Amino acid sequence: MKLLWKLTAIAFILSGCFFGSTLVFTEEDASGRENLVFNADLEGGEFENNRPEDSLPLGWMVMPLKGDKKTTIRWDNLEAHNGTRSIRVDTDDTNISLISEAFEIKPRSAYYTRFYMKLNGDDQLGIKAVLAAFDEHGQMLNETRHRQTIADGWTKVEFSAAFFKKNAKFARIIVQIDTGRNYRLWIDDFASYEVYRFTTTD
Q: What residues contact 63, with CB distance under 8 A and at least 6 apart?
């Protein structure tokens, strides 16, 4: 029995996947799989050249809503990690969340999620990325949280999520930014992939 356990653990380690308290997949595990995020490159939508702050990419929303006097959310066509557009955030002492359109998930599957962020200047900023799971009625069931520090230049934010409640049907990516200071940053190039399906005996 101990030998079987050791062989299983070694197989998981060699494959780059860790199950239990830590679950780790990489973009290599997502090779050839469908990106589930709608308008993942932030290119789709009606871009207002005269007032880009009044525009957001199709399928994306921001909380607090645009119009918060301390925060400017701008669909930007000057900086992009992929394509020609990104979301630019100019903020000081406020919290914001960028939220994707809901996409279908399977409760017995594991998902790899990533996106890119860029911070203007030489400082660093801690952010929180979330994959939140919902039932068919829109009730949030559970969430996987990932904290990471970003800096100048495009930084990849990536994490894995699994072990959803059995009635999970949909998920959303949520990027939470709590600055407490004056920052300018960009967000772009989202992806979420089903990378593993757990098998059961029931």
A: 96, 97, 99
